[in-house]
Amino acid sequence: MMTFEEILDQAIAMLQRRGRLTYGTLKRQFQLDDAALEDLKNELIEGQRLAVDERGNVLVWIGGADMLPLTTPPAAPRSADAERRQLTVMFCDLVASTALSSQLDPEDLREVVRAYQQVCSAVITQFDGHIAQFLGDGLLVYFGYPQAHEDDAQRAVRAG
Fold it and tell me: CA-CA distance, 51 to 43, in Å (whole number)?
């Protein structure tokens, strides 16, 4: 029997690959009861913010095309000599998205946010940043993880 984390990782990969999944498919694929399906939905929608609910029966991927389906960051190899590294953290979000959400249809808003996330992902990747999490219309980004550079702070400013 798979653990919840294993089911979550596989569901994320499947949702990312397909873009949309019905709740019935998730129930059958992972042999979930109603309570387990509800937990999985809540984790994908609220906890990870990788999907949105559509009409109460479909999950739609919003996590970004290049995002790895992992629930935790990969562990860095440990050496005998520990080192302290600087990490630059950047958070960016779509300005005036609340006002925009009242002006646009939810599907149109989702497309705007998705396009925004794709453009941000391309720019962040160009400066060797790591998107730690998508948070609605915001992105939490690390510079200096997993690979450190002498100019990570400047990279963050340029990406911003």
Answer: 9
